[in-house]
């Protein structure tokens, strides 16, 4: 379960290190309605939109309600800003967290039966083999996950955040981030080594299972079925409390507090974060409602 969740996290929780789209054969629903909420008082409106970071080419997901929210927002807030045209900031963050001395050989960090697959994945990545010896396990996993996405026919430029950032930038509206690159990658850096090794093994598996899982998640997102999204993450996270705490609970609490503080300022903004953060118990939506805020579902 942890392996599938770790791969899914890149797509639906918002860890934006990998800039890819979804399987080309995926199809949008006839009437897409990705979930959109708002929280408002007399002079402040905050729109909350759950995203999927990997989308197929020409996947239809925008709606009139969503476009009105974009038009009415003065600022966009995303989880973190990754500039695919100038990736130096992200690469510096990776290097600052993911490189260490005295690590076990990379081959010893997977089961013996997986070592041939690891070597094949490293060769396919194009990254020099010696570089992996100095990488922490989570960093090696992240870099090798790119092989799986590429093998599935995945590419960039279609993800929701990219579309939103381009839209706001073209109108000279500011774009901010809830977490820095270092903060976001730090959640993986703090995982126990056992969890990091499971992630590494998942990164060198064949992509067929990922394709099926992702298509199910994408379908639920396009329909606005937050209950299905919540069930999926609850099922997968049940076997990994460390990952749930690192990737979900702590971040949801941080973002809920940020929203509460932002409500004290006038204006309208849009917050776009991974769909898993806005679905189910202990989601950002749930925390805000428990805090006494009226969160209205717009679509």
Structure description:
The chain has one domain (2-280). It has 299 residues and is an alpha/beta fold. It is built from 12 helices and 6 strands. It has a 6-stranded mixed β-sheet with strand order 4-3-5-2-1-6, sandwiched between helices. Helix 1 crosses helix 9 (208-223), helix 3 (88-98) packs parallel to helix 7 and helix 4 packs across helix 5. Strand 1 and strand 2 (44-51) form a beta hairpin. It is globular, with a radius of gyration of 19 Å.
General shape: globular
Number of helices: 12
Mean pLDDT: 84
Number of domains: 1
- Computed structural class: alpha/beta
Beginning-to-end CA distance, first to last residue: 31 Å
Based on CA atoms alone, the radius of gyration comes out at 19 Å
Element order: H for helix, E for strand: HEEHEHHHHEHHHHHEHE
> How much helix, percentage-wise, in residues?
40-55%
Determine the oligomeric state from the structure: single chain
User: Hey, roughly how much beta strand do the residues contain?
Assistant: 5-15%
Total number of beta strands: 6
Largest β sheet strand count, sense and barrel closure: 6 strands, mixed
Strand order of the largest sheet: 4-3-5-2-1-6
Poorly predicted sequence stretches spanning 5 or more consecutive residues? 11-24
């Amino acid at each position: 379960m942890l392996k599938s969740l770790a791969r899914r996290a890149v797509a639906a929780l918002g860890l934006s290190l990998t800039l890819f789209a979804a399987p080309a054969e995926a199809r949008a629903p006839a009437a897409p309605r990705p979930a959109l909420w708002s929280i408002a008082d007399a002079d402040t409106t905050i729109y909350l939109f759950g995203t999927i970071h990997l989308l197929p080419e020409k996947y239809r997901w925008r709606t009139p309600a969503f476009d009105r929210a974009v038009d009415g927002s003065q600022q966009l807030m995303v989880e973190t800003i990754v500039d695919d045209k100038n990736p130096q900031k992200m690469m510096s963050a990776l290097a600052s967290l993911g490189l260490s001395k005295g690590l076990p050989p990379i081959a010893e960090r997977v089961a013996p039966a997986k070592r041939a697959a690891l070597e094949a994945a490293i060769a396919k990545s194009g990254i020099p083999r010696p570089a992996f010896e100095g990488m922490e396990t989570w960093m090696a996993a992240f870099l090798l996950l790119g092989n799986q996405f590429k093998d599935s026919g995945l590419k960039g430029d279609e993800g929701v955040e990219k579309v939103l950032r381009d839209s706001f930038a073209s109108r000279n509206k500011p774009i901010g981030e809830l977490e820095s690159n270092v903060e976001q990658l730090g959640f993986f850096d703090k995982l126990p080594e056992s969890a990091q090794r499971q992630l590494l093994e998942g990164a060198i598996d064949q992509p067929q299972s990922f394709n099926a899982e992702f298509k199910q998640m994408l379908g639920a997102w396009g329909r606005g079925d937050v209950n299905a999204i919540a069930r999926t993450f609850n099922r997968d996270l049940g076997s990994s409390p460390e990952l749930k705490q690192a990737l979900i609970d702590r971040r949801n609490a941080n973002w809920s507090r940020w929203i509460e503080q932002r409500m004290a300022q006038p204006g309208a903004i849009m917050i776009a974060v991974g769909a898993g953060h806005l679905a189910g118990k202990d989601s950002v939506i749930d925390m805000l409602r428990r805090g006494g805020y009226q969160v209205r579902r717009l679509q």
